[in-house]
Amino acid sequence: MLFTKGTNFNPLGFHYQFDQENMLMTMEEGFWDKQVVEKQVTPQEALEIMLPINEAKQLWEVNIYLIALFAAVFIALFFTPLKTKKYFRWYVVLYMILLVSFIIWDVAQHQEIAETLLS
After folding, report:
1. How far apart are the C-alpha atoms of 57 and 51, rounded to whole Å?
2. If I label 37, which of 26, 31, 97, 106 is the partner at 20 to 30 A Cα–Cα?
3. What is the pLDDT of residues 9-56, one digit of tens each?
4. Which domain holds residue 102?
């Protein structure tokens, strides 16, 4: 979480800065090799750019907590006395179903946001 906050990381790799006075938007694309684009925009164009980027950032912030939750459940399943329980295999199956469902949903959401940004 500190890495995400400190580096302003998100899986899409898009960031923006908007100057309202001059209606100038600076967009950064990429993770390490950032490509910077500056252009004049109308208020409508600015919103069309800012909303998906903000949505992706909020989704990533929720993902950080969900990933931590999945890690905690993994530790609880495999490194506690719960492992010796009668229904251990069912717990693992349920965990895997939830984890795979989360990953599929998350990738689909990020792809949808990326398509919105790139169109």
Report:
1. 10
2. 106
3. 666 777 778 888 888 888 877 766 778 888 888 888 888 888 888 888
4. 2-118
Distance CA 110, CA 76 (A): 29
What single-letter amino acid sits at 45? E
Instruction: Map tokens 């960031």 to a residue.
Output: 15
Q: How many domains does the chain have?
A: 1
| Helix (H), strand (E), coil (C) string for 56-86 | HHHHHHHHHHHHHHHHHHHHHHHCCHHHHCC
∠104-69-116 over CA atoms, to 5°? 35
DSSP for 10-58? -TT-EEEEEETTTTEEEEEE-SSS-EEEEEE--HHHHHHHHHHHHHHHH
User: Does residue 1 carry a pLDDT above 60?
Assistant: no
Contact 11, 56 (CB under 8 A): yes
